Amino acid sequence: MTTFKSFEYMHHVLDSTGKCFRIITIYRPPPSKVNKLTVAMFLDEFSTFLEQESISAGSLLIVGNFNVHCENTVDPNSKRFLGLLDSFNLCNHMTEPTHRSGHMLDLVITRKSDNIVSDIYVAPSDHLSDHSAVHFKLALAKPYLLKKKIVYRKIKNIDSSTFQKDITESSLVKTTPCNLHALVTMYDHVLRELLDKHAPIKELEVTERPSAPYYTDAIRDEKRKKRKLERQWRRTKLTVHKEIFLEQCKHVTSMLTDSKQAYYENTIQENSKDQKALFKVVDKLLHKNEEPKLPTHTSLHELCESFADFFVNKITKIRLDLSSIRSCAQHIPSKQVPNCNKLIEFAPSTEEDVQKIIMKSPSKSCILDPIPTELLKACIGPLLPVITLIVNLSLSTATMPDNMKEAILSPLLKKFNLDFELQKTSDLFPI
Q1: Domains (ranges, CATH) in the chain?
Q2: How many Å separate Cα 389 from the centre of its chain?
Q3: Which pTM was predicted?
């Protein structure tokens, strides 16, 4: 175990009904001229400590006397300490003073995703200590695995050649309309029908289980051997069998640790240039599994309308600002600009240009797409004239079809500490 100068700690591992708890007790002496300890030293060492413990398996519970005035949110040291907890996806559950002088020095800290602490009660301090005793309940029961219904299609089972043949024989190719809106509507309708034919929607009830991609067959075999040795020891009660069982436990733990470390090292190296993948790895290590949040609402329809109104008003405001800038710019003398060619119309796009753009674009899809992008690329042959016609009709008529004006909006907070409510809509990213 690593030792630190600015604080002391005890580490306990509790296994209860198949659930693992890591209970850590902290004591941080108050800084003084005698011990030459500083807040900066504590925050630096505690950050190193959390780097080691936050990625450990099982539920994490950190308790003890931190000697930080956490009730004073204006205090720079308190803000830095609470910010440090938040960066490791941890939260403090204490809300009232625990010291006789009215300070909140004793804390109960868990991961944000762990709902293991409840009914916190601070008993009045007695004459034995100037600190109050903190009581709380710990959820020791193993939670039930949740079940949910999922909707899916077997896209990979689609035969692209058969799908392409059906497109060629469809009304979309044989009787292509020249009206833009009718063409886009037919494009969407025909492709959705063909997708339902080749990969119909299916429902399945699945059990949500913790993901452990580093768990190998070799580890599974060693765990079976461990359980067999445990049964042998409990049956015979012999010391030699107990020692063999404990050695096997250490061996399995070592295999799990090495496999987990190797998996994450390889994942980080393989995605060294992919920031999104790296953030997912970090969230996984810090046990961040937060569900997407929505502002308080009584109706999803009203919520969508509120978001739409906000962004429409935002665009209107930008246009008004641009108009005022343009009117002001008219009074500013400028140099004579020579006559130049004007853009009056767009040159028609060729099938070759459209195909090049489609094939170079990422294979990402949206639920509004009639078919997945990968399937579109695989069947680009008969669809290419249709898509090119849609592009050229849209450019020549200066019209965007109504079907293409829809979007899926995912509101995300710009900063983690902002209020997620409608009156704070300006604090949201529209993604």
Answers
A1: 8-138 (3.60.10.10), 150-205+294-324+347-425 (no CATH), 217-285 (no CATH)
A2: 39
A3: 0.58
Contact 71/34 with Cβ under 8 angstroms?
no
Q: Which two tokens stand for residue 360?
A: 């170079």
Task: Return phi, psi of residue 147, to 5°.
Answer: -115, 145
Please name the amino acid found at residue 422.
L
Question: Of the candidates 151, 149, 256, 264, which has an alpha carbon nearest to the alpha carbon of residue 208?
Answer: 149
Round to whole Å and give the CA distance between 70 and 72: 5
In a 3-state reduction of DSSP, which class is residue 157? helix
What is the C-alpha separation between 258 and 266, in angstroms, rounded? 12
Identity (one letter) of the amino acid at 117?
V
Q: Which amino acid belongs to residue 136?
A: F
Indicate the length of the chain as a whole number.
431
- pLDDT of 334-383, one tens digit each? 556 566 677 777 889 999 999 999 999 998 888 899 999 999 999 999 99
Structure tokens at 291: 């569900």
Distance CA 245, CA 241 (A): 6
| Tens digits of residue pLDDT in 16-59 | 666 788 899 999 998 888 888 888 899 999 999 988 887 777 88
403 contacts: CB under 8 Å, gap ≥ 6? 184, 185, 188
Phi-psi region of 349 (alpha: psi -120 to 50; beta: other; left: phi over 0): beta
Q: Which two tokens stand for residue 335?
A: 């140099």
